[in-house]
Amino acid sequence: MELHPKQKKEHASPKDFFLHLLMIITLYGSAISIIIIVFQIINIYLPDTLYNTNNYGGVDRYKDTLRGALATLIVMFPVYIVTMKHLKKMYIQMPGKLNLTIRKWLIYFTLFVGSIITIIDLISILNNLLSGELTVRFTLKVLTVLVVVGTILWYYLLEIKKNK
Question: DSSP assignment of the chain, as one string?
Fold first, then answer.
């Protein structure tokens, strides 16, 4: 079987390696930042009544964490978008780059990590449900993780199917 001229076997250059690594790191940083932002908003607007916030810095402590996550998201997400656009252009020009080993490893690693996070999240839901303790705060946080991680898993599963 002969490959189409544009689908010749491509080898990963240092540029390919670092672009794919940058893309995945900024994806993880953005996802974590989104989750932290939503968690802190939940903490501020649905405070834990059993937890005495006066002893631990109160709402200001949540706002500090919120500020840091927001700053991270403002920097990392645009870098992720620009890197993805650059890689998509590269894939159009050189379709063989879709089969780079580094790209496949990082996609499968992302699917693996996302699956582990989802499994842990579901165990946490079930554990809290069985203990009779399912609060609105907890439910919103679990839904946040499931939506963010689920969206990433869905996107990269589609990427894998599209490239087969």
Answer: -PPPGGGPPP---HHHHHHHHHHHHHHHHHHHHHHHHHHHHHHHHS--TTS-GGGGTHHHHHHHHHHHHHHHHHHHHHHHHHHHHHHHHHHHH-GGGGG-HHHHHHHHHHHHHHHHHHHHHHHHHHHHHHTT---HHHHHHHHHHHHHHHHHHHHHHHHHHHT-
